[in-house]
Amino acid sequence: xxxxIAAETQQDSPEAAGAPATLDIVVLAGGISHERDVSLxxxxxVADALSGAGHRVTVLDPDATLLDxxxxxxxxVVWPALHGASGEDGALLSLLEAAGVAFVGSRGDDAxxxxxxPTAKTLVARAGIATPKSITLAKETFxxxxxxxxxxxxxxxxxxxxxxxxxxxxSAQGVSIVGDASELPRAVVEAYTYSDVALIEKRIQxxxxxxxxxxxxxxxxxxxxxxxxxxxxxxxxxxxYNAGETTFFTPARISATAAAHVAETAVAVHELxxxxxxxxxxxxxxxxxxxxxxxxxxxxxxxxxSLLPQAIEASGQELGAVYxxxxxxxxx
Length: 332
Description:
alpha+beta, magnesium, D-alanine--D-alanine ligase, Rossmann fold, 14 strands, ATP-binding, globular, D-amino Acid Aminotransferase, Chain A, domain 1, four-stranded mixed sheet
């Protein structure tokens, strides 16, 4: 049976005050991916913000009864707060589309494109947006052609200052920073723990930025860029979700010119990949002011330490109001 992990809640109706109509919203959180715990935290936070804004909210943990439960309940909107393959690979989103269910987030086919980091990088590069040089390496190739031979060619092409990551997934799981050739084999094997394909990128030095893009019905717009400064120097899984491990600056400590360029590029990536309602686009801003695209997140984290909520608050808006506006846009 689908687990209801948050009681239905509703504040006083906002309609009396002239606010947007109360919506019946189902938030999906949990799932079976490596990012289940993060998803549960995101789901709780978005549910609290929406119920605090006066909406009726139920949180469901997807299982075999989910589609029937949604059909029976017939909510106004579904909000997938699912991270990892549970939601971001586009499969569940495509099923919601097929069922005619209104939901916050990108359509299934577009989410699938962004979910694949090599595919997203290729599309972005073809549009003339900078992204680090990279090699995509399947586990079978690594094994069948010999690890030493394969990685020697990788180093010849990209050097030894590298970032190795799974080709799909988020929350920095399976991501390694490589500064020496001896570290590369282990980093690739670590990436294979989370995906059968590894993405090996040339590391770009600069300021790490995350730019939220939201569209509440009047076109996508960028939120203030969040600058990320991890105490360890690496924005790892622990640095993302443990308070005090990372210092965030919102807005980022960059020039107005650079901020405008990053915002423009984030919106361009959002539109190029066909994303909808909300996304987070990650960059490295180099010393010359070039934003280098790293990846796009179609269902960005919404936990207490996540970047999108920080950007919304830095823009002077309340989370509940923005989340409600996104839900309303998804319904229309």
